[in-house]
Design brief:
Structural class: alpha/beta
Number of helices: 10
Order of helices and strands: EHHEHEHEHEHEHHEHEH
Radius of gyration: 18 Å
Strand order of the largest sheet: 1-2-3-4-5-6-7-8
Number of strands: 8
Bound molecules: pyridoxine-5'-phosphate
C-alpha cells in the first residue's frame, strides 16, 4: 500500500482539511440566457467533481432565474460527492428538499429584486418559521446550515435554533479589500461557532485572489465558491479553475498534495 507523506514529519504545520464546494448556479445562468439545454449544470458538476471539488452547491431560487427544478432533480442522483442545496425557508422549498434529500440544505434569505444573495439571514426576526423549516429538514435526515453574518449574537441565535452548521457571509470581506475588520469578524465568529458546537462554513465573493486569508481560518471547514470560479473557467476551464482554488487552499492550510 502506498504510504502518504506526513507533512508533520517534515516539520510543516497542517491545519484540518477544508472542503471546497463549487456553486454551479452561473453555468445555469448562461444556459438560461438562451433557454436551451447547454451549458448543462449536471455536466459542469461532473467536471468539478473530477477536478477535486468536495461537493456541489446550487441555489434553487423562487424565481428560478438560473437553476431549475429539473437540474436539482438530476443532480440529486448524479452528484457523486455531496449536494448542498441553497434555498429560502419556504414551504415549497422545504417540500422539494424533503423529496430529493440532498446531503445538506443551506437556508438563505431571498429577495426577488436582488442580484445575488445580498445579506445573511435575520435569524432573530422570525425564529419560529426557521425552526419549523429546520425541524422538517432534520426529520428527513438532511443536514442543515444557515447563511448568516459573522456576528456573535447571530451565531448564538443559530445554535439556539438547533441548526447543525452556519455559513458565514464573506461578502463584506470580499467587498472591502484591505480592511482588516471583516476578516477579524469572520475569525471571531468562526471560533465562537466552533466553540459552541456548530460546524462552520463560509462563502460569497471568494476567488483565487482573496480566498487565502479565509482558508487560513482553522475553524472554517467548508468554502462555497461560485461566480469567480465559473468566470475563471471561461479562460482556463472548470478543471483549471477548481485546481487553482484548491492549490491556494491547500498551500494556506499546509497540506501537501
Ligand atoms: N454561499 C451562499 C449562501 C450564496 O448564496 C452564494 C451565492 O449564490 C455563495 C456562497 C457563492 O457566492 P459566489 O457566487 O459569490 O462565489
Amino acid at each position: 500500500m502506498a504510504s502518504e507523506a506526513n507533512p508533520r514529519a517534515a516539520g510543516a504545520t497542517t491545519r484540518p482539511f477544508q472542503r471546497l464546494y463549487v456553486n454551479i448556479d452561473h453555468v445555469a445562468t448562461l444556459r438560461q440566457a438562451r433557454r436551451g439545454q447547454s451549458p448543462d449544470p449536471v455536466e459542469a458538476a461532473r467536471w468539478c467533481e473530477q477536478a477535486g471539488a468536495d461537493g456541489i452547491t446550487v441555489h434553487l431560487r423562487e424565481d428560478r432565474r438560473h437553476i431549475q427544478d429539473a437540474d436539482v432533480e438530476a443532480l440529486a442522483t448524479s452528484v457523486r460527492t455531496v449536494l448542498n442545496l441553497e434555498m429560502a425557508a419556504t414551504d415549497e422549498m422545504v417540500a422539494i428538499a424533503r423529496r430529493l434529500r440532498p446531503h445538506q440544505v443551506t437556508l438563505v434569505p431571498e429577495r426577488r429584486e436582488e442580484i445575488t444573495t445580498e445579506g445573511g439571514l435575520d435569524v432573530r426576526h422570525d425564529p419560529a418559521r426557521l425552526r419549523a423549516a429546520l425541524d422538517a429538514l432534520h426529520e428527513a435526515g438532511i443536514r442543515t446550515s444557515l447563511f448568516v453574518a459573522p456576528d456573535l449574537a447571530t451565531v448564538d441565535a443559530c445554535q439556539a435554533l438547533g441548526v447543525r452548521a452556519i455559513e458565514l457571509h464573506t461578502g463584506p470581506y470580499a467587498h472591502h479589500p484591505g480592511d482588516p475588520a471583516p476578516l477579524a469578524a469572520l475569525a471571531r465568529a468562526a471560533a465562537h461557532g466552533a466553540a459552541i458546537g456548530l460546524h462552520v462554513h463560509a462563502g460569497h465573493g471568494l476567488s483565487v485572489a482573496n480566498v487565502g486569508p479565509v482558508a487560513a481560518i482553522d475553524d472554517i471547514e467548508e468554502l462555497n465558491i461560485g461566480h469567480a470560479l465559473v468566470g475563471r473557467a471561461l479562460f482556463i476551464g472548470l478543471t483549471g479553475a477548481v485546481h487553482e482554488l484548491r492549490a491556494v487552499m491547500d498551500a494556506v492550510r499546509g497540506r501537501h498534495v
